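fwd from M.: "can u put these together and see what the complex looks like"

so here's what she sent:
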Amino acid sequence: MLNIENITERFEELIDDDNISQLTEELNGYHSADLAEILAALNDENRLTCFKLIDEEKAAEMLEYSTPQIQVELLGDVDEELASRIIQKMPHDSVADVLGDMEDDESEAYLNKLPDIVSEEIRELLAYKEDTAGGIMNSAMLTVHKDMTIREALEYLRVKAEKHNIELYYLYVTDKQEHLLGVVSLRKLLTASPNTLISDIMMRDIVKLHVDDPQDTVADIFMKYQYNALPVVDPYNRLKGMVTWDDAQDIIEEETTDEILTSSGFSTSLVDEDEILLGGTMKSVRARMPWLFITLIGEFFAVNVADMFQGTLTAMPIIAIFMPLLAGLGGNIGTQSITLIVRGLSTGQITLHSAVHQIWRELRVGLIIGILFGLMVSLATWKWQHNWELGLVVGAAMCINMAMATLIGAVTPVLLKKMKIDPAVASGPVIATTIDVIGLFIYFSLVTIFLVKIL
Amino acid sequence: MLNIENITERFEELIDDDNISQLTEELNGYHSADLAEILAALNDENRLTCFKLIDEEKAAEMLEYSTPQIQVELLGDVDEELASRIIQKMPHDSVADVLGDMEDDESEAYLNKLPDIVSEEIRELLAYKEDTAGGIMNSAMLTVHKDMTIREALEYLRVKAEKHNIELYYLYVTDKQEHLLGVVSLRKLLTASPNTLISDIMMRDIVKLHVDDPQDTVADIFMKYQYNALPVVDPYNRLKGMVTWDDAQDIIEEETTDEILTSSGFSTSLVDEDEILLGGTMKSVRARMPWLFITLIGEFFAVNVADMFQGTLTAMPIIAIFMPLLAGLGGNIGTQSITLIVRGLSTGQITLHSAVHQIWRELRVGLIIGILFGLMVSLATWKWQHNWELGLVVGAAMCINMAMATLIGAVTPVLLKKMKIDPAVASGPVIATTIDVIGLFIYFSLVTIFLVKIL
């Protein structure tokens, strides 16, 4: 992997020395994915200077590896002629993504500069919602007719693919009304004899996406079937585009981020993941408030539980100091169980079918660790406070607490899944609070019964 | 998506009715990825019954979509003749994975049944460590000589790919000693004129993997460059195999699971992610103990802080009941900050360059939410306890606590990254404990200074 720090230093030096020819040569020696990484690490001014020196073809490729922010920034800052030349070298779906992130009048200006046939296709792509198969797909692909021979198809492809910068994965077979009839893999195309008809080698049983499929469905289908590319059709089965695996990869990454953020209590339905990560402060506040507020209410229950036992606390104030210990470890081991089950359900390694087995396993884990930690805590407390009864109660509370936490942590996501609710939602913070409330109740009850003996 | 429950019920019915011909027909009507999902949901006995009825070609495909456990189970339970026929229809890297998961004598038995040329290749694959590029790659690929013409290459490919069930993504160009010289994309191959030489169209500047590259490097390179397949070379630049994107996809998923589990305090370096999820109880206990133990020690510091203020607690036992509220919300908002920064660093959306900006943003978020929640808590406490001084102190502690938690949560992963330590390690549990300790100290200090006035 690259040492980005060294490279950016080197480039900054070359810019300061005004050694443009050397800089141009070195820049163009890098892979476009590397360039995207390097330019992201430069400041705005140096980034623009470097971008202008990259060959147009490479600049177009580089933009595809860059974040939307940088894409819009760079294309907005170079002169419009250069920007439209670069845009024309990018795949249509990427162009639609970039223009979709610009202000309307700005993107309109670019669209007007593009050849009609291209701008029309891009306008069509822009009409789909960003987070659906339609918004993700590329409309440039190769379609052939089922009555063509392999020889004809190869000839057609040779001319077409060269001219239009089309990504090649499969040939899609359509009729005159563009209905999707079948798919031919390049492998089949290359190994079949030249006189065979396309209709003889095409697969008719096709895994396909619909323009309105939301992006999590697209991600799930790619993860499951593992094709390089999938065709996208409209409600009348007319072929509209294809989604390629590199775009699917980006969505899968987004969906994973969504799952991770949701699990720790961000409301990704209110604010987009990207904006939670990189948007304004108030966006981030807004995404965090709902579950934190619910946690606040939950913790007031915990306060109430503690308040119920005020008599016990006044009679024996020492017991208060063990509250963070119990809550901390219960919360921790419970969160581990939630994380494990949510992730397992998400990757499919845990199914509702195997869930009961998993829940038992978590409970066993909680009991074993609970007994070990309970013993340690008992001994430590006894040694420290010279009170073996206190030690026993704190240790017992620790053990019950940990076992209860793993049980709640394992059961809750499974129940949510059974009720067809995303297990990542409502998990982390709320379960942790529930564990707090129940844990405190158990602890105070034990203390009250065995130590203070006022019940 | 499929309704797995309905389908499995249907199949169980057909098995009970002994309606084998209908069952066979329906089974073979599904896509192999669907079959993998359906069979995973059946019990062992029914799974085997169904598996035996699937066409061999489809059975081989289905196994590729199945978990290692199910692969080994099914191949072990059908008769050996059928098993070896199915194995011969699978790509070599998948066979190596399956055999690698079997007992040595069992896999030896299968290897002996395979044609020598195949078993030799698989033995070579088995010699690489499972979690390196060598252990992941497929050794069956198409290599051509640089002096071939396009026409010759296409002819060679037609014969070879058909016979050997080779996945087609790129042609690799090697010399007689199998040194990797270049790569030709299928697109280039199909669009170039037939008399061109391979050496004229091949890319010489190649992104490649080395047999010993660990799998997280493989995942990173695929995520960054987004190729469909990458060649794998040995230390002498001899071409040994290729890793395809679907295998990379599996690794990326594994690495993400690793990141998620590590973040919530599992030691993935001690126990493999798969075993943490699905292995024995003691494996799971072992993976959890180290960080829970460190949390235990950390929480004893929290206990000590509380103990330092025993005088305060005895003088005013009511203050103890707010401890879970403060610790719970501080821990929660802090975990949100950790999660956000760790994920951002992992996807590259946050760089060390932009980290300072992110840390400020988190602190602002913490202050804003802290002030809001502080006010709410102040008012609620005042109303409830009829003590405005107590309300003010609890509210102020809440505000400081939340701001401090976001700051610690944001700074720690960045510092770890700067020290070249995986930010996911040591994050969640330890930071939550640190926040507990500092939060308690702040709270008790405020109470002691402003309410009990004993300092």
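replying to her w this: The beta strands of chain B are 143-145, 170-174, 180-185, 209-210, 229-233, 239-244.
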